[in-house]
Amino acid sequence: MTDLRRALYSHGNYTLAEPFMRFQTPHTDWQGKTSDDKQSLLEEFLAFTPTGKCAKTVTSSNGVVAMPATPRIARKPGQRKRGHVRNGLARKPRDTGLSYI
Fold it and tell me: Looking at the domain assignment, is residue 13 inside a domain?
């Protein structure tokens, strides 16, 4: 939750995806806000559902938090998924030097 809060004012390892950029606040403005203003901005951010193909949401097991079902909410810049077996990037089996007769 701390990383999400830091992404709102661009002061962490994560950046906001394009549909969520409307909630981004400069760090100097964030410092001037009261704790109630910060909390309300965070609640608006968590309640926001982008329109279009990303409109699906994932609800927590206790039903308190509903997040948009996109892995691009807050992601480290330059971070990509790793390859899978179907992409041909899987590790080859190690040659142990043993032979079976």
Answer: yes
What's the one-letter identity of residue 41? Answer: L
Instruction: Using alpha carbons, list the distances in angstroms from residue 4 to 31, 78, 82.
Output: 16, 17, 23
SS3 66: strand
Q: Say how many domains are in the chain.
A: 1
Asked if residue 12 is part of any domain, the answer here is yes
Domain assignment of residue 42, yes or no:
yes
Q: How far apart are the first and last CA of the chain?
A: 58
Q: Which domain holds residue 61?
A: 2-78
Kindly state whether residue 33 falls inside one of the protein's structural domains. Answer: yes
Q: Measure Cα distances from 72 to 12, 18, 88, 90 in Å.
A: 15, 9, 25, 24
Q: What are phi and psi of 91, to 5 degrees?
A: -75, 140
* Cα-Cα-Cα-Cα dihedral sign, residues 30, 32, 34, 40: negative
Question: pLDDT tens digits, residue range 31-69?
Answer: 999 999 999 998 998 888 877 554 567 777 777 787 776
